[in-house]
Amino acid sequence: MTEDFHRQVRSWCEQHVPKNWRQTQNGVSEAEFARFQQEWFQTLRGAGYAVPHWPAEWGGGMSVDQQVILYQELAAHDAPRLVLQFVSIHHAAATLLAAGTEEQRQRHLPAILDGEIWVQGFSEPEAGSDLAALRTTARREGDHFVVNGQKLWASGGMHADWCLLLARTDSEAPKRKGISYFLMDMRSDGVEVRPIRNAVGDSHFCEIFLNDVRIPEANLVGPENAGWQVAQETLGTERGMTMLELAERLGNAGFRWLVQECERQGATDSRTRDTLAQFEIEITGLRGLCRSMVSGQAHGPADASIVKLFYSELLQRLTGFGAEIAGLDAHAVLTKPQSSGWESGAWMLDFIGSWEWTIPGGASEIQRTIIAERGLGLPREPQ
């Protein structure tokens, strides 16, 4: 059965992965990037490959083994990654399935499959790693909440239809007790989005300014003032479930290209061979961790943080070594297709971009704290 599915996915990829998409998508406008991503998403959806991790009743239902095969083949055939839909199909879906009402699920899950785009409105200028310090407020007025504040590092915000929003609804409560979780329509009056240009020339990071934005009470996820608990489901997905695909991409695209780069540069010395062997061992371990976690074989309170920390720092070291081996050639490519994610093969740009992976979803320092406290049971440092 596994071999049959492998052959099925391989055959599909050979027929449907867009040819020369890297060349045609290099340097395109934001509008063209969004169009290409939406078309590719619908192509995957038509084959049942768009949301394999969702429950069967919502269009998914693949086993972990099948998901691994799917991601292996997509990476091996250099398929575009769903960058634009990342928050929609992972974070938004996980939140709705875990804590949303039936009405919210019926409204948004089919819409996501039809192309609805989501952005995550968590971080703020003074509340990044310390998310519970957020200052955006939501004041109840009848059957609505009136929201004021600012969000930062909202990836893809300029394309988004909806936002996963955290806001403080009780200023007197302890930090983690007075936060509520909302679904916010990005077309609401008072919402302003400003793109931020990053170190590699992309503008997918955004600021979101909220000025008296009215959100219906029906768009509250979970109980009022219990948004912190709901947010942990979203962040757990970002740190865990999403890594299954990223780990396979790292092994079937990033590492393969690194080996090819070493061959091109004639780097055959013992140090290079030892480094490649170490990377292969670590990638194998990462894949095993991801598969165990999503299959339920091993799921402790800190597992998602372990995987996120392991992946992001391994990615950083691997792309850094690629830039080192490529030498001056690593600086030759100044742009890359947005649809490639980090795995563009432009080593210097990928290395610079890899640093952001150690920050979103909880910086590496935060992950180490979670692992220490929840995984190892170490005491908190006295305040």
Fold and architecture overview:
With about 375 residues, this protein is of the alpha+beta class. The chain has three domains: about 1-80, no CATH class; about 115-225, Butyryl-CoA Dehydrogenase, subunit A, domain 2, CATH 2.40.110.10; about 240-375, Butyryl-CoA Dehydrogenase, subunit A, domain 3 (Up-down Bundle). The chain is built from twelve helices and eight strands. The protein has helices at about 1-15, 20-25, 30-45, 65-75, 85-100, 100-115, 225-240, 245-265, 270-295, 305-325, 345-355, 365-375, and strands at about 120, 135-140, 145-150, 160-170, 180-185, 190-195, 205-215, 220. The chain has a four-stranded mixed beta sheet with strand order 1-4-5-8. Strands 2-3-7-6 form a four-stranded antiparallel beta sheet, with no helix packed on it. A hairpin with a 2-residue loop joins strand 2 and strand 3 (about 145-150). Helix 9 (about 270-295) packs antiparallel against helix 10. The longest helix is centred in the C-terminal third of the chain and has 26 residues, at about 270-295. The radius of gyration is 21 Å and the shape is globular. The mean pLDDT is about 90.
Can you give me a brief rundown of this structure?
The chain has helices spanning 2-16, 21-25, 30-47, 64-76, 86-99, 102-113, 227-239, 243-264, 270-295, 303-326, 347-354, 364-375; strands at 118-121, 137-141, 144-151, 162-168, 179-185, 191-196, 205-216, 220-221.
List keywords for this structure.
Butyryl-CoA Dehydrogenase, subunit A, domain 3; 8 strands; four-stranded antiparallel sheet; 3 domains; 383 residues; alpha+beta; Butyryl-CoA Dehydrogenase, subunit A, domain 2; four-stranded mixed sheet
